[in-house]
Design brief:
The protein is mainly alpha-helical and 287 residues long. The chain contains twelve helices and no strands. The radius of gyration is 21 Å and the shape is globular.
C-alpha cells in the first residue's frame, strides 16, 4: 500500500497511515514523552475519588455505626452513591481531557492538564450520556455471546474522540465511530487486548499481592492495613495504565481519518491557506 508523505504541522506528530506496530510505538512514545501530563490528568479524579472513599470510611469509624443498623446502612448507601457519582464524572472528565491533550500534541498545540480540563466541563453531560449508550451497545452485543460483544466494543471505541474533536452529540458520535472503524475491527481488537493485558499486569504488581495478604490475615491484626494498601495499589495501577487506552483511541482516530479522509492533506491545505497551525480540519460532509 502506498502511503502519503508525512506531514508534521507546527511540531505535531507526522500525519500518515500507520502500521499496527508503528501505531503502538506512537502510543508508547506519547505516553513516555508526556508522562507527567497524562498522569496529572488521571490522578486528579482518581485522587478525589480515593479521598472521598477514605472520608466516608473514617466517618463510619468515628460515628461507630454498627453493621446492619439503620445508621450504618444509611451511611454505607450515601458513601456508595457519592463514590459512584464522583467516579463516573471523574472517569468521563479524565478520558475527555486525555483526548484533548493527545489532539493538541498531535496537531502542534501547546497543552497542559489545566487547558485540557478547561474544555471538558461544557461537555461532561454529553460524555456521561455517551458512556451510557456505549455500555448499552456493548451489553447488547454480549447478550448474543462473546464475539458480538467484542465486535461492538471495537466498533464503539472511537466514540469519545469523535464526540470531542468533531463536537458531536452522543448518538452521532457512536455512528461516526462505526463509520471510522469499519474494516479495521481487527486492528482495534489487538490494541484493546494489549491495553487489557497491561491493566492486568499493573494490577498483578500493585494490587493483587496486597489483596492476597489481606485474605491470609482475614479476621486478624493487619488485615485492614493490607486491605488499604490493596485499595491504594488499585488507584496507582489505574493512574499508570488508564491513560494508555485513551491515547491509543485518539491515535487510532487520527490514523483512520488519515486513511479514509486524507486528513493529512486536509491539515497541509489548512496550513497553506493560512489556518492556525494545528487547526482541526473539518471532516468531509459525506463522512
Amino acid at each position: 500500500m502506498t502511503t502519503s508523505p508525512a506531514v508534521a504541522p507546527a511540531g505535531g506528530a507526522d500525519l500518515r497511515p500507520l502500521q499496527l506496530g508503528e501505531l503502538l510505538d506512537r502510543v508508547i512514545s506519547l505516553y513516555r514523552n508526556h508522562f507527567w501530563l497524562f498522569i496529572g490528568i488521571v490522578a486528579l479524579p482518581q485522587g478525589t475519588t480515593m479521598v472521598s472513599a477514605l472520608a466516608f470510611g473514617s466517618a463510619a469509624a468515628v460515628f461507630g455505626a454498627p453493621k446492619g443498623s439503620g445508621a450504618g446502612l444509611g451511611l454505607a448507601f450515601a458513601g456508595v452513591a457519592v463514590f459512584s457519582v464522583l467516579y463516573i464524572v471523574g472517569y468521563a472528565a479524565s478520558q475527555a481531557a486525555t483526548v484533548y491533550a493527545v489532539s493538541d500534541i498531535y496537531l502542534g498545540h501547546p497543552t497542559n492538564w489545566r487547558s485540557a480540563y478547561s474544555r471538558v466541563a461544557p461537555k461532561i453531560g454529553r460524555m456521561i450520556w455517551l458512556f451510557i449508550l456505549t455500555g448499552l451497545c456493548i451489553a447488547g452485543g454480549f447478550i448474543f455471546l462473546i464475539v458480538p460483544g467484542i465486535m461492538m466494543t471495537c466498533r464503539t471505541w472511537l466514540g469519545i474522540p469523535a464526540a470531542l474533536l468533531e463536537d458531536l452529540r452522543a448518538m452521532p458520535a457512536l455512528k461516526r465511530s462505526f463509520s471510522l472503524s469499519e474494516g479495521h475491527g481487527g486492528r482495534i481488537f489487538v490494541v484493546l487486548l494489549l491495553m487489557v493485558l497491561l491493566g492486568i499486569t499493573a494490577q498483578s504488581v500493585f494490587q493483587y499481592p496486597f489483596q492476597i495478604m489481606a485474605g491470609m490475615l482475614k479476621g486478624k491484626a493487619g488485615e485492614a492495613m493490607w486491605g488499604m494498601l490493596a485499595t491504594f495499589g488499585t488507584v496507582v495501577a489505574t493512574i499508570l495504565v488508564s491513560p494508555l487506552s485513551q491515547i491509543a483511541s485518539a491515535v487510532m482516530y487520527y490514523d483512520l481519518r488519515v486513511r479514509k479522509e486524507a486528513f493529512d492533506l486536509q491539515a497541509m491545505l489548512s496550513a497553506l491557506e493560512g489556518g492556525a497551525a494545528g487547526q482541526q480540519p473539518a471532516r468531509p460532509a459525506n463522512g
